[in-house]
Amino acid sequence: MSHSNTRSAERILSEEYLVTRARILELAAILDRLERGQGSVEKDPHFAWIRQGLELLTDDSGKKAERIQLLFSRKYDPDWRSNLSVDSGLNTGRVTSQA
Prior knowledge:
Elements: H1 9-36, H2 45-58, H3 64-71, H4 80-83
């Protein structure tokens, strides 16, 4: 979808190239450190999510940020407050927190 008030793809690339390059290099360095580290993370679910995220970045589908956010997010649970033992503070008029 194209809007007259949006930047062109060429301009976005020109403006974002150096930051994007730096982030890719940073990610590559992290993956190199994991590879050189003792032991293996191949079976760790966090590493599996990272791999899936990288695959989403390189596929031809759109909405990459949305799909990656969903990959790393919990499914919505309407009872999340009680399941995660969160007191909303709505009943007492104050918000409680643990230090």
